Amino acid sequence: MQQDIESDARSVLLRDYGSGVAVELCTLFGVIEPFPSHFHDYYMVGIVAGGNRRLTVCGRDYDLRSGDLLVINPGDPHSCESADGTKLEYRSFSIPSSVMDALLADFGVSREGVQVPLFPEPIVRDAGLFALALDCHVRGCEEAGDVDGVVEDAEPFYLFFERLLSASSARRRELGMPDALPESESVASVCRYIEQGFRSKMTLDDMAQVGRMGRYTLIRAFAREKGITPYRYLLTLRVIEARSLLAGGESPVEVADKLGFADQAHFGRVFKDITGVSPGAYRASYALSGKKR
């Protein structure tokens, strides 16, 4: 049975498809607000059941339409906003890299040493795949399971992902995907600085000093190479860490203090901007499931 954890048709559910394949199922209905540029530390496979959005992924613009699948690799910066005032109806699977590796191994695919992204393009337009994805997500949300959220009939999940991954593999071959270009040492040093110190308060001046460039030059160089500004990079890393802390049972107040946010209100705004749900709702989804990360 679906556990609704927010009143405005926004929910996060935890589902176990067996053999350690545990994923989050997110549902966002009636969304009109934009999502600012951010990235994830997991794969996101989204189902656009309603609404049209202007989407930017890794600096490229796309038209995201009802009936599309959205596939985002870990680390790919992306943002979106309504294209025509229609409300977004969206479902998604959040899949950790370790779980995706397990799925690939189950399908007889190894990506050891492979540097190209798993999903070569962010939008998949395939009516058959869309129907499979929607059916799989709806079943996952409606499946009662046991207290641990185990899905009894996992076949639709595996059938969908086998077809999606096969389609992505074929598309990569068509495109002759090149390895990612190396980033400059200045931007790399700022990335390391943010990644090592994102739990503490830091300013743009601090980042610019590490990169040995002016603030405006840093913003331009960082955005050009990473597809996201350094401050949004900082906030996204904090939200990634916040998800783990909240899932472990820590309160929003504790998390805000640990991760260098100005206060709980600031943390709440940033978290909901990026994830679509509030910190309290996200924490509640793990409390209801009886699981901790």
Question: What key phrases describe this protein's structure?
Answer:
globular, alpha+beta, 293 residues
Summarize the structure.
The protein has 293 residues and is α+β, with helices and mostly antiparallel strands. The protein has helices at 97-106, 127-142, 155-175, 185-197, 204-211, 215-226, 230-247, 252-258, 264-275, 279-289; strands spanning 10-16, 22-31, 35-38, 42-50, 53-57, 60-64, 69-72, 78-82, 88-96, 123-124. The protein has 10 helices and 10 strands.
Unreliable residue stretches = 1-8
The overall pLDDT, averaged over residues, is: 87
Shape: globular
* Count, helices: 10
Structural class: alpha+beta
Number of strands: 10
Q: Proportion of β residues?
A: 15-25%
For the largest sheet, list the strands in their spatial order: 1-2-9-4-7-10
Q: How does the major sheet shape up?
A: 6 strands, antiparallel
Radius of gyration: 19 Å
Helix content: 40-55%
Please report the distance between the alpha carbons of the first and last residues.
21 Å
Order of helices and strands: EEEEEEEEEHEHHHHHHHHH
Give your account of this protein's structure.
The chain has 293 residues and is an alpha+beta fold. Helix content is 44%, strand content 20%. It has ten helices and ten strands. The strands form two sheets. The chain has a six-stranded antiparallel beta sheet with strand order 1-2-9-4-7-10. Strands 3-8-5-6 form a four-stranded antiparallel beta sheet. Helix 4 packs parallel to helix 7 (230-247), helix 7 (230-247) packs across helix 9 and helix 8 packs across helix 9 (264-275). The longest helix has 21 residues, at 155-175. Mean pLDDT is 87; it is low at 1-8.
